[in-house]
Amino acid sequence: MPYYKFSEDDVFYNRIKTHPSYRFFTWKGCTYYNNKYVLSGAYNNVVGHISSSYNNVNKRTSFYTSSCASGYVNLYELNIDRPEYLHTFDTKDIKGGNWSLGIGQQTMIYPFLTKDGTRNSLKSVTYDSYVEDFSKGDIISGSYPLSASITRVFFEAGDPENGKDINPATGKPYYRSPSTKEQTTVKIKDPESPEKEKTITDAPKLKKTYIQALENTINFYRKWSPHFVYSSSVDPITGKDVKNGGWDKSYQTLSIIDVPSIFYGSSIKKGAVSLKYYITGTLVGELKDEKRNGELIQVGPSGSFKSGSVAGIVLYNEGALILTGSWDLTSRAAFTGPKSQETGIFGPSLDQDYRYWNSSDKPSWVYFGTGMNDGYPNHWDAQVGAYTIDNGTNYKTLDADSFHSSSFELLLSGTNYIPTITMMAHAKKGYLNWSNNPTYLQFGQPSGSATGSTFYKESDSMTIKNTISSSFACGFTASFKKQTFIDKIGVYDKDRNLIAIAKVATPVRKLETDEYTFKLKLDI
Amino acid sequence: MGSTYKIMNSGDVISKSTLLHEAIPLTGSLVSGTYENAGSDENVKNYSHGMFQSVYDYPYLSSSANHLFDITAGYSNVSALSGATNSQNAKKINIYNQMAQVLVGYDHTGSILRFDEAGEVVDTGTKMDEVYFLNFSRLLVKDEIKKGTFELELGVANDHTHEGNTSMVNGHTTFNKRVKLVDHSGSNGYKVNSPAGEYGVLYAQTTFDGDSTLDTALLVGERIESNVSDNESWKRAGLLFYQAGVCVVSGSIFTSGGHATAVDCIDTTGYVNSNADASFRIDISSAAGGLGGTAVTVLLDENQNGGHSSAANRITVGTFDGSETDALAAGYIIDAINGVTNSRVVYATSGNGQSGADLGVTAALGSSDTQITLTMNKAGTSGNITSALASVSGHDVVDVTAFTNGVATTNTLLNFGEVDMSSTETGTETISDMLTGSTIEASADAFRNRIYNIQFNNTTELNSTIYFCRVNHNEFNYSTNPTYTSASQINVKVDAKDSAVSYITTIGLYNAQNELLAVAKTSEPLVKTPEDELTLRVRLDY
């Protein structure tokens, strides 16, 4: 088998740019990814994505079960339906690598490694824990599934911290006790007189880590649009002074929708982001980044209130959407369409409980994605037959209409790069006209090989079988030509290790006068 | 962007590898039973070609399901089972040959080698000509199965039905007798003479004999008492190819040699009425599993319910004719032969027949309460002894003198009878019947329903290169950052005597053409002054 070396012009390195599209649909606190529905398993209420908590009595009536985990992706998709409650094996029992010390049953697949001198560990183990909790030879283990999901973090004006926690005792939002937090002074809109400012001197120190951490990143993209200005004493759009606390994302009501990079790859594709807001199934607002500069502009439905306004920004490379538009999407105050279409275009003017408990809010972009893994209770309890919140001791049924008339659709495309190698393999004239296949030679002729104590000699006059098809029937043979059939091409490294094989769909006939170039493409 | 490049010396770069493992438990209920619907397992995929069966961890029509492994079966063309009239005969041979040529290879003539139970592929060792194959998914195996961690536990009781089905055949559910196959030789006993990489021998051992005390060996020649050597406790039953992720299970794990029996050979009818002592001898050679040497005499000592004595090579059974029957005498004889402690039984003072000695046979009641059937403990033709029993004196209690129906034990492992692989509870189908008369799919079903547990650890090799980036005291104290200077003066210096200072945030790794290949970032900027020397350890995983 001959070897030929690829010349410099025969090998090309390219990169294929792909744009996979994704759809997230959120309703009743459940997020559905690419229309993937929730499966029920033999051991889990949710299969394929996240193993839910359950007891071993009845998986259906278990404590704190979730039925809507379809918005996740599961790395490796291991442990999709396994009885976790039967997994009693604990690798902490294994000391010094002695597995016989392990007790209990294993029902779950889990990764582990042995602590050694390489200082490698699992990412879930902190460095301090690695040093202090494990000796050489001990087993460091993790668990599957590893999952990623789209999440939303909501910030309310005047709220000191990320999101808002539910007080389990009362079922209402916390307002953190000033005595346990650093004090600071903030200026917020006066709830009683929104046009006025109110100074709060005992507010906890601002700890909105999610949005504050993005300050530099947001400011970096201000070259694209003034909407990327994080804070300013004047309105970056109009240049006028800003009332009521200024233009500052640390204090205004907004929400961040965080998209893990496993969904989009290198970056979100510009111009492919679309957000649709539905009330009782009627589209009341649509945002698109139609300028491809990160501005999320309200583009629909036709004639909607504040159509053309910017309601948020997209951080394409970081995978975050920041929504700040707080106007009432169902407002008819500025409806400009035909009177006959006034009703029905924006859906019913329906107040919803978007802010966790007993609030009465008009639909607006800052509430887009409520229930999207944002801490809003989304736990379905089959025993109660309702969505419930776990208050630690028992179930509490939510108001069925709390926010369930709202549904949200997020469409985006990612940008993913696939490096490829293209290799040109040439079969030149006069080459590759011989085969080592035994059938290449005329059958039945003596091998003619001779051996001695110091030599082995093959015959130099073997007859090649003429495989050229004759144009004439009945025993007429065609003139002899060397003919081979190429069915595969091997790619070798410099040490002649076979590293890849390319196969052709059907063997390619090659005569001495033929010349071929095979184009091999390898995704890496 | 760096403006100063340092060349990495050979001592600054080392390559390491880390072995990451995953524990993979596959319980038997996962592969059969959990997703059973209307008699078929929804997580098991069969194909129209019928050459193998795929097992998933969830109904395979769901995109969430993962492929776990394939099951197939085959035999070599020299197997005694091979026959043109067999069901899928060619396919079974092709399966065997295809797997063998990949996993075992060819000999010098170009012929496909057969699987050898000890891995001696070019030798004349014991070949495994009838085998099951479990081809594990690459998702589970990753780079390789970790040596010494593989366990395959099989139910070998006479019932096809899976655990949880309480229907019983011959008093057993499938898993009431279990053997476990383990790559016992582990990381220091594997073979390297396969073209498919390293492989180990799977050894079988009894793990459950039907009751809470593990005291009955299910395998021929196996000893399961404590403190026995590996050679006595583990029996070869297959091969495990670590990198290929293929488990080859010998069909012998479901087969048994026949034990020779002497049916109703002893009959005590008339002994009590004879009012006299009677005796007979048992002569089992060591080749047949007995004691060999002098035959053991069993003496029925009439009118003795205590105080009777024994002698060399003699077991004395005391009987008391005043109130006892022939049936009671038969019971005493059974205890005497089986070595059971009984006040009426006095074992030999010396020679053969002493207390605790294994006579090589097991006694049980025969067709009536006075008749006794003896069965050879060792299976095989060696138990077919024509004159093992003989009456010595008194009333003749020996009706049958020969043991018969012992069947050869070649390539058999079980010692209690053939496993019924039939899918029906009323039918009987040995592994030989299954492989000849049934399809590969049916054979795979039978095997899958006998899987009690599979577990192993896999291995993924993570390669790392560690670059020690050494920053000497007089290096990297300045920056080309525009903010580092102001008005042609170094910004960080208030006084000309102040030491230069910089903050290291990023390390760039460049190739010989000064092209940036990789970037490492510190979690926080590191202060660098002429008083500091640093070594930054940059690890690149791939």
Largest β sheet strand count, sense and barrel closure of chain A: 13 strands, antiparallel
Proportion in β-strands of chain B? 25-35%
Tell me roughly what share of residues is in helical segments of chain A. under 10%
Distance between the termini of chain A: 27 Å
Shape of chain A: elongated
Specify the helix fraction band of chain B: 10-25%
**What is the helix tally of chain B?**
8
Strand content of chain A: 25-35%
Mean pLDDT of chain A: 80
Structural class of chain A: mainly beta
Structural class of chain B: mainly beta
Largest interface between protein chains, with number of residues from each side: A-B, 26 and 26 residues
Which descriptors apply to this entry?
heterodimer, A: 524 residues, mainly beta, 13-stranded antiparallel beta sheet, three-stranded antiparallel beta sheet, 5 helices, 5% helix, B: 542 residues, 14-stranded antiparallel beta sheet, five-stranded mixed beta sheet, 30 strands, 11% helix, elongated
